[in-house]
Write a structure and sequence with these properties.
Number of domains: 1
Radius of gyration: 17 Å
Distance between the termini: 53 Å
Largest sheet: none
Number of helices: 4
Strand content: under 5%
Order of helices and strands: HHHH
């Protein structure tokens, strides 16, 4: 909560990429995208609580999310492509 936005952005990106590399299988892109947006909303709430004087608008947060949070992509092939090996 007290780190700079740069450090928080690097951490959030690593969390999202790790989640995508493990869970982004075919037909789960919607769930991974929901997780991505949930992390963005939690990050926004944390940034809003940092100060009593300033207010982080959602427009500012959308720019941060676009910069730091990677887009959802499927990282694994379909099972019939993975296991359809003829030996």
């Amino acid at each position: 909560m007290h780190d700079s936005v740069l450090k928080m952005g690097v951490y959030v990106r690593s969390v999202i990429l790790g989640h995508m590399r493990y869970y982004a299988v075919p037909m789960s892109a919607v769930s991974v995208s929901d997780f991505r947006m949930a992390v963005g909303r939690i990050w926004w709430r944390v940034l809003r609580r940092r100060s009593q004087k300033t207010h982080v608008s959602w427009a500012q947060m959308e720019r941060r999310v676009a910069r730091w949070v990677p887009q959802t992509r499927v990282c694994h092939p379909y099972p019939w492509q993975r296991f359809g090996v003829i030996t």
